[in-house]
Amino acid sequence: MTDTTSRDKAAFLAVVKKYEGVHDQSGIVALDPVNGPMIRHWAEAMGDTNPVYTDPEAAAATHFGEVVAPATMLQVWIMRGMDAGLAVNTVTGELYKHFTDNGFGSVVATNCEQEYIRPLRLGEVVQYDQLIETVSEEKTTGLGVGHFITTLVNIYVEGEAGRELIGTHRFRILRYTPHRKKPKAAPAERALRPRKVVNRDNRAYWDGVAEGKLLFQKCTACATPRFPFAPGCNHCASLEWESVESAGAGVVYSHVTMHYPKFPAFDMPYAVGLIELDEGVRMLGNVLGVTHDEVRIGQRVQVEFVTHDAELTVPAFRVVGEN
User: How confident is the model over 132-155, as pLDDT tens digits?
Assistant: First the structure.
């Protein structure tokens, strides 16, 4: 439709504009009367603890005098259920078909406006009328080129004096043709992983990694093992220590799966494990050999040194069996 002439666009607009002000449905009765269980479920889901919605005694002490439904539940009472589709033989369905047939097949809801005249009370049966309020001229949006369609729903209850308007529900959608996608650019060179940070405290560890050794510290005063590398012993405060090479075997103590944020240097999602080595220290590292959703606490792992580029080799842990 967006490639047609101005005359074609004007002709199409004239057709769809005829639907403005046309009633689509009238006197439709809600599937359920206003009831306590639905109000309670809604209040719990929304975290609304106002007792006027669920506590008859508290509600009786208010100016309402009884339990009332939350105003923002207005649309809940007119929903037609999960299996209710839009029949083509309704006026709205007919209008939507015009848009689909003319290339505006995509749809997105844009906004909703409600007006509350009075709250609904338990036992009241809601009715509603629906009309097509406006159809806009063609608009260019971030999603594509299309038309905004505004539908107005007037919501009533039947009273002694006849139908009483208790609220309105106005919602707007955009029927549009998506913008044509631009060709994908050639993939950029893969980003580098974060660089290791080497200092005087951990240099011995990284020197070991460069030699294919997984090292941890042991206090020479009290023999307590520790990791990560640190200047002093947390157990006895001694500054004397030695490096010990681990056999690299251990178990998954805990783990997380990284989904977000997405780092360009990593293939998402990926698993990061806290590994308890057989020597008693714990280290972080990627878990290899299984998919991220197959990692389990207690799985046996073995260290494996992974070289990502000329400047970065890090230890990871490959699953080798169950504990």
Answer: 999 999 999 999 999 999 999 999
Q: In the chain, helix, strand, coil percent, each to 5? A: 20, 40, 40
* CATH number corresponding to 249-323: 2.40.50
d(CA 100, CA 281) in angstroms, rounded, equals: 64
Cα separation, 211 vs 107, in Å, equals: 59
One-letter amino acid for residue 114 of the chain: Q
Predicted TM-score (pTM) of this structure? 0.55
| CATH class of the domain whose range is 6-29+84-178 | alpha beta
What is the domain partition of the chain in residue ranges?
Answer: 6-29+84-178, 195-246, 249-323
Residues 6+ apart with CB under 8 A from 286: 270, 271, 272, 273, 306, 316, 317
DSSP state of 121: B
**CB proximity list for 78: less than 8 A, separation 6 or greater:** 28, 30, 126, 128, 153, 155, 169
